[in-house]
Amino acid sequence: MRIAVVGATGAVGEELLALLADRDVPAERVRAFASARSAGRSIPYAGRALEVAPLPEGGDLGAELVFSSAGGTVARREARRWVAHGSVVIDNTSAWRMDPDVPLVIPEVNGEAADRHDGVVANPNCSTILALMALAPLHRAWGLERITVATYQAVSGAGAKGVAELTRMTRAALDGTPAEPEAFAENVAFNLFSHDSPVGDDGYNVEERKLADESRKILDLPELAVSATCVRVPVYRAHAEAIHAAFREPADPDEARRLLEGAPGVRVVDDRAAGRFPTPMAASGRDEVLVGRIRADLARPGGLALFLAGDQIRKGAALNAVQIAERLAPGLGS
After folding, report:
1. For position 333, what pLDDT does the model report?
2. For 147, which DSSP code?
3. 219-229: b (≥16 Cβ within 10 Å) or e
4. In angstroms, rounded to a whole number, what is the distance separating the alpha carbons of residues 35 and 39?
5. Rounded average pLDDT over 202-208
6. Does residue 60 have a pLDDT over 70?
7. What is the DSSP letter of 316?
8. Residues 6 or more apart whose Cβ sits within 8 Å of residue 95
9. Distance CA 73, CA 93 (A)
10. Which of 41, 195, 201, 207 gets the most CB atoms within 10 Å of its CB?
């Protein structure tokens, strides 16, 4: 199987290439594509170099599998053209997530949905993936009815420019020199602020609406009540989330801990005596979503409260896409 990575020079594209190399996908089967300004660059892959090519005008990437991570505009314009040339597209943008004919997939949660694709499979938003990795096992046990979520989102969610901005603004603050924000509307150094996506008439920003709409679609719970507050924090990598969940049947914290300990892709970090709980630093570079602070919700009898941290570039994006590919094409690296 020939594989194309579109958006290969971005953070998610680089992570996708690293994951494919870890799976021993030979370099001769991988093609890297990016914008015209990146064309001609060489990027490392499994001890070799891949030359970055611009997207062909005819839409034929010469690949049976396409990982699409170059932005929603490109995905909306090109994905069906790639399919017409014989590709299956796993899209990591927001372009196709809420299309009723396109499955929105977290393999550990609703992997079977990917089998019903018509050429395009959508990768959920990072915050949605991390939340549902913890909530899906609890939903299966007690029937999820309502979630209230506060996210603490790393600057790398805004790409390389967000990472550079945190470094620049932090250095300026420590040196006592003036600096103006560029990647964000607010100073990110030693600060936090509402997620930098447009706020609608209902008072919710785009990131918050994604978490609500995507959770309903993935869990097939159109009536699921979701209230989210998404916040940008001065952390380089890995998002954290505080979640309060209510269920149709009363949930038990001890049973919830056992369920999460047995859930694929989840690692429970919940040592009250030692004060060890999930942190973005511990989650960075890991495949698993770290879950802890598992306890009864005192404001809603029968509900649960928990805290999680997960690498939004890895499980929240690239790894989830590769896992979808492995379901569609077992033996991806062989």
Report:
1. 66
2. E
3. beeeebebebb
4. 6
5. 95
6. yes
7. I
8. 72, 73, 75, 76, 79, 122
9. 9
10. 207
Q: Do residues 187 and 181 lie in contact, with contact meaning Cβ atoms separated by under 8 Å?
A: yes
What residues are labeled active site? 126, 239
Residue with tokens 């159109």: 222
How far apart are the C-alpha atoms of 146 and 225, rounded to whole Å?
5
CA 25 from centre of chain: 23
pTM: 0.96
Residue 38: the pLDDT is: 86
CA dist 227 → 147, 154, 230 (Å): 7, 20, 10
Average pLDDT over residues 301-305: 97
3-state DSSP assignment of residue 196: coil
Alpha-carbon distance of 274 to 259, in angstroms, equals 22
All structural domains of the chain, each given as residue ranges with its CATH number in brackets, are: 3-124+317-328 (3.40.50.720), 128-311 (3.30.360.10)
Residue 56 identity (one-letter amino acid): P
What is the distance between the terminal CA atoms of the chain, rounded to a whole angstrom?
9
Is residue 87 within 8 A of residue 78, CB to CB? The reply is: no
Looking at the DSSP bridge assignments, the partners of residue 50 are 43
Task: Determine the residue type at 318.
Answer: A
Quote the CA–CA distance of 294 and 256 in Å, as a whole number: 8
The predicted model gives 146-163 an average pLDDT of 95
List beta partners, residue 144: 247
